[in-house]
Structures are given as C-alpha cells and as structure tokens.
Amino acid sequence: MQPTTPLVLCVLLSQVLLLTSAEDLDCTPGFQQKVFRIDQPAEFIEDQAILNLTFSDCKGNDKLHYEVSSPYFKVNNDGSLVALRNITAVGKTLFVHARTPHAEDMAELVIVGGKDIQGSLQDIFKFARTSPVPRQKRSIVVSPILIPENQRQPFPRDVGKVVDSDRPEGSKFRLTGKGVDQEPKGIFRINENTGSVSVTRNLDRETIATYQLFVETVDVNGRTLEGPVPLEVIVIDQNDNRPIFREGPYIGHVMEGSPTGTTVMRMTAFDADDPATDNALLRYNIRQQTPDKPSPNMFYIDPEKGDIVTVVSPALLDRETLENPKYELIIEAQDMAGLDVGLTGTATATIMIDDKNDHSPKFTKKEFQATVEEGAVGVIVNLTVEDKDDPTTGAWRAAYTIINGNPGQSFEIHTNPQTNEGMLSVVKPLDYEISAFHTLLIKVENEDPLVPDVSYGPSSTATVHITVLDVNESPVFYPDPMMVTKQENISVGSVLLTVNATDPDSLQRQTIRYSVYKDPAGWLNINPINGTVDTTAVLDRESPFVHNSVYTALFLAIDSGNPPATGTGTLLITLEDVNDNAPFIYPTVAEVCDDAKNLSVVILGATDKDLHPNTDPFKFEIHKQTVPDKVWKISKINNTHALVSLLQNLNKANYHLPIMVTDSGKPPMTNITDLRVQVCSCKNSKVDCNAAGAPHFSAAAALLLPLFSLARL
Question: What are the start and end residues of every segment in region (Disordered) (predicted)?
Fold first, then answer.
C-alpha cells in the first residue's frame, strides 16, 4: 500500500469535516504562480508596484506574513511587491516567502539582466527547523534530453518524458522557455497529460547547441501547482560542416638555401562542428605542388598543427636555378581526424623563395672607353654589370664607386635604377690643355651585403679610359670685372686702362682682337690690337647712365680660331665727384599780402647735384646791386634753407628779387635766380593778385607751405 500524501490527507480531512464549499474543494495552498520574470530596469522606484502576488492557505489567510530575500523590498497586504527605496542592482533573483499557521510557500522573481548575489536561500530567510507547518516537496522528475541535429521526417517525434509521481488528479504539464513560447517558438511541446516532450522540426547545433526549458504542473485554472523545474535539451553534433580556411590569402616566404626543416608558414582551418568531437578534429596534407621541380615534394605540412616546412636540401632551394621562385600548394584539411569518411576543405598556399645576396655583381667587360669635349658636363658613358640575384632586391641593385683617378672630383657615378647601369658623368669641365686623357678605376658592389661565403672578385672592378677633345675656347679677361677710378670731367682722350685677355687654347697660336660691346653713354674707345681704353667724351658722374657713381661698360675679346670664339669682360669705372654743378633754389615764386602784419615772405631751399663736400652748407644772399636796401631781408635757417622777409609793407605789384646761393666746394660755385614775389590785396578773407599780374594764390597758404617744409627739416 502506497503512503498517503499530505494532499490526499487534506482532502480526506475536508470530507470528514464536511467542508463542502466549492472553493475549499478546488483550493491548492500556496502561490498561484511561483515563478515570475521581469527585465532589469534602470532603477527600482520607491513604493512603485513591481508585480502582484496571490497566495492562499485555503483557510482565509489568517495571520499571513511575507518575507523578501532582499531587505530593500517588501510585500504589502494586497500582495504588491514594492521597493523600500530607489535602488538599481539587487541580483538575478528575488525570493518571496509567504506563510500562515496553515500553509507556506515560496515564489521566485527572476530578474533578466541582473547580477548574482551571495548567500544561500536558508541564510536569507532563516527558516526555523521546528516549524509545525508542513512544507511542499517537489515531485517533478526530469532528465536532460539529447537530440541529434539534422533529423529527418516525420515530425513531431517524441524525444523525452517528464514524470510527476505526485501529480494531483486533473493537473496538467506546462512547458515554457526559448524554443516553446519564446523565440524561436514552437520547436518543442509537451503532452499536458502524459508529460511526453516532442520536437517539431530538425535542429542545427551550430545555430543553438542547448535549450533551457522549464516544466511545471498547473491546475485546471492554469495556476502553478509545482515547478517550474529546469529541463535542458542538448543538441547532439553531426558532422555536417566542412573545414574552412578563413584567413587567406596564405602567402609564405623562405630564404633560398634554408636548412631542411625550416618552417615557412602555418595554415589552420575552422570547423563549425563540436570541437569536443572528431567532427571538428582536423588533419592536414598537401594535395598538389606547382611547379613539381626540382622535386615534387619540396614541402611537408604537419598534419596536426598545419606548419609547412621545407624537406629538400639547401642546394635545391637555389632561387637562381629554379624555374620559378614561386610555389603554389593545394592544402587539404579533413575532419574526423583524417579518416576517409571525414569532410574536406582546401586552400592555396603561395610560397616565395626569397633571394639572398649570394652572387656578386660583375662588369660585362674589364675596360670601357669614353670621349668628352673640354668644357662639357654630363653623362659620358654607361657601365654595364650582370647580377643573378633578384632584380627587385638590394641583392641585385648596384652601387658604384670611383676608387682611383679622380683627384679633382671632376667625375661622379650614379646608378640607373631601371637598368642597374653605372652612369659616369663629368661634373667639373675638363681642360684639354691641362690633360687630354683620364683613367678611372671603378668598383661595383650591392646595396645589401654579400653572404659570408661569397666575396667580390676581380670582375667587380673596371677601368674607364676618357679622351678629352680639344675645342676652340673663348678668350678670358683677367681680372673680370676690371675696375678703375677716375675723376669726372677728365679731358677727352684720357687713357683709362689697358685690358688683358688670354686664350685658354695655349697649344694653338691665335691672335686676339678687342671691341666695345656695351657703352651706354658713348664715352669710351678701345684699341683693337693692344686693348687700351681711352675716353671719347667728358665723363659726367651726374649722368643718368651712372649708378652710385659707377659707370659700367662691356668689351669683347675675339680670337682667330675657326670659327672664332668670343669672350666678354666687364669694366667698372668709379667716378670721383668734382664741383661742377652750381646749386639752385626752390621755390621761385611767392605771395604776400600788402597789409600783412607778418612780413615773412617765403622759406627758400637749395640743392646741388654734386656730392658732399661740394654741396651744403649753402650761403644765401640778396644780389644788392639791383635791390634797394631796407626793403628785403634774407636770414639763414640751417645749412640748406633761408627765410626771405620784408622790412616794410609794399604796394600791390610783382617784384623780382635776385637770390644768390653759393655751395661749399673748392672753388665754390654760385647761382643767381630771380625770386618773383607777388604783393596781393587781402581784404575780407579774399586774396586778389590780379593787379599784380600773377596767378591767384592764398597769402596764408604761401606762408604756411614753406613753414611746413621747414618743420620737416
């Protein structure tokens, strides 16, 4: 006889006590729903209801008491769960314990996105071991369900079963979770009466490897009686994915002459199947090598690691003797540990045999010839070399050096980057008369150093014989420029100097003739035979052709070669100043009012084309022979200015006042200039000079302008 469960005893006791209420007959003590799920909010707000809990002890809930696993929450009398203050993080789960003298139960609130908290459930609630209230015991029995992926029809098919040995009559099974009522929905379902779990379509382990479901029993009203209990569904892997090389292109490099067993590169593939099974256990091999010379097995791949290594002797890895320094390998990866039943995937590995500098450059011949005209510059010969190394590397690129025969640094050599030839150039003009022949010794090396067992030999040096061709060179003036200093105003026909030009062609007997090339003022003449330069006119330092007291002329020296060659020389004549220019005054016209109280007439200035000391200080005077005394007065202001004033008012008329100005030269020079003074009528701010027979000027302006000029001195 099976033991009577507490639920059966409760029902029997209800019958004995004749409790015939429909509510009592249908009532199951505890929470109507035992598991709740909510998303973690940004913040739980104080006194704001989170959810409503419904608990019944089937006896009226007398002395109902709630406990919450977090001290930051409480359950109100109406069953609403609220926060005691604003709080952000409380963990992944909250537990609510409800009890009365007749029953107790626990509800679970799963917070999606919350973090774990420490402490056991017993520590949280501190339940008394001597509590007289009987506690509910779970009786749902579940085992993990294993389902192979890629199953074929028919569907649905049973895959497992849930057992509840203590399930009340009339209750049903309910299945929830991702794959049932959450996306992807409808994959699994449960027979609510028998507990059989079935799958409705084939599964893909590489999409979802496990499903976490929940099983519970509910009454006819859908209220939870037991559970939920976790049910794990595990998808069993099938070998349905080929290995894939995902990291290409695969390019490796190995130096020529590398020892046997040198690692070139590693190639690994990916298999989406279960890495814990042979379905994803890969093995590698080389399916094809192109080219297959000098050996069809130049390389080997580690079947487990995927490392590609060389397996031929260093002598066979000679880049210069290979048909092609590039090899392509078809690499195969096979799962199931390489068994024939395994799936395969392939990729191409490109292996480059890199060059090392194991060949020195060699000149194509021991001697090179070149000719160059004297005085010319530029490339005169290209030196050719051979090198068996890779043209794209510094092991092939040549570097040339002149090691002998270039004491004057007249030659330079550079590498042509396209042809690798040495371009020998003349950078300083050569002189046939000094040396008609030159011999250079040139060596060639690589940019990269040679490997230790290779050295540069005799073929890495060459001799260049250079012949200089004589040309008719232009005569050269010495010195150039030629400079001479003379006083201006020297007499016509005076000899300034004799120019000298020499012919660089010293081995040729040639004569030189001279001529004037540029003489802007037409002052000079040159003897065509002896080069004597004399004057044909008076030299004037104040001429517009003279700049900063220097006059420039150009002369030609022409030899008798065929064709003749011409050289140019420059003559700079520095002209010393003499006092040959008299000073002059400005302005030469002035106005004054006939009733002016200020009898100042005008401020005069003087200037001189000569240089100091033949200029200021100037002496200003009134030429008294023609001017009555006691009418005009002139007073010195400074070395270059003087003030003309009246001693008394004059009648309206035009007056001519002779002003004499003298410079400080030795001997001095004097100039007399008429100053025309207009005495005008000035009444009611109107100036009338018409009667004076002169243009109309403001008397005030005539006085202010000279005074302003004086202020600037």
Answer: 156-178
Place of tokens 């070669």: 561
Reading the block at residue 333, the tokens are 């990866």
687: β partners: 682
Instruction: With cut-offs at 50, 70 and 90, classify the pLDDT of residue 594.
Output: confident
- Separation of alpha carbons 658 and 672, rounded Å: 6
Q: At 23, give phi and psi (nearest 5°).
A: -65, -45
Based on its alpha-carbon atoms, the radius of gyration of the chain, rounded to whole angstroms, reads: 60
How far is residue 138's CA from residue 228's CA, in Å, rounded to a whole number? 10
Q: How far apart are CA 705 and CA 708, in angstroms?
A: 5
Task: Output b/e per residue, 593-608; b: 16+ Cβ within 10 A.
Answer: bbebeeebbbbbbbbb
User: Predicted confidence band at 116 (pLDDT cuts at 50, 70, 90)?
Assistant: low
Dihedral pair phi/psi, residue 616, rounded to 5°: -75, 165
Exposure string over 469-490, b if 16+ CB within 10 A, otherwise e? eeebbbbebeeeebeeebebeb
Q: How many Å apart are CA 532 and CA 520, to the nearest integer?
A: 19
Cα–Cα distance measured from residue 581 to residue 615, given in angstroms and rounded to the nearest whole number: 9
pLDDT in tens, 366-389: 999 999 999 899 999 999 999 999
Report which secondary-structure segment, H or E, holds 214: strand 210-218
Q: Which of 280, 182, 191, 179 is nearest to 234 (CA)?
A: 179
Asked if 413 and 380 count as a contact pair (C-beta separation under 8 A), the reply is: no
pLDDT digits (tens, 9 = 90+) for 334-350: 999 999 999 999 999 99
- Domains defined for the chain, CATH in brackets: 30-112 (2.60.40.60), 140-236 (2.60.40.60), 244-354 (2.60.40.60), 362-469 (2.60.40.60), 476-576 (2.60.40.60), 584-688 (2.60.40.60)
CA dihedral 444, 446, 452, 455 (to 10 degrees): -20
